[in-house]
Design a protein that fits this description.
Strand order of the largest sheet: 1-2
Structural class: mainly alpha
Distance between the termini: 49 Å
Number of strands: 2
Strand content: under 5%
Number of domains: 1
Number of helices: 3
Radius of gyration: 18 Å
Helix content: 55-70%
Shape: elongated
């Protein structure tokens, strides 16, 4: 029997899933409230307004999982992780 399971990837997945389950509906409600929706039109398939801010909730879940599970004792050792998170933020803003 394994005495201790020490797989941070599993805990990151569980945490990101939990945060996404909370953050995405909030982002969708916020999107409808501020009017950041894609409205139906004659050349579009959807029949009701579709929220455009759902990706914000997914990014928040990703960033929370990365920064809460992983410990960063030295910035130089984790430059690639910070580059991925920063690049994701740049895409989110654009």
């Amino acid at each position: 029997m394994i005495a201790q399971l020490n797989y941070p990837q599993v805990w990151m997945l569980i945490l990101a899933w939990f945060v996404a389950d909370l953050a995405v509906p909030l982002a969708i409600r916020l999107s409808h409230r501020i009017g950041a929706v894609d409205r139906p039109h004659t050349y579009k398939i959807h029949r009701e307004p579709t929220a455009l801010l759902g990706g914000v909730g997914i990014y928040v879940a990703f960033a929370v999982a990365i920064f809460s599970i992983l410990r960063f004792p030295d910035y130089a050792d984790f430059k690639d992780v910070f580059a991925i998170v920063g690049g994701g933020f740049a895409v989110l803003v654009l």
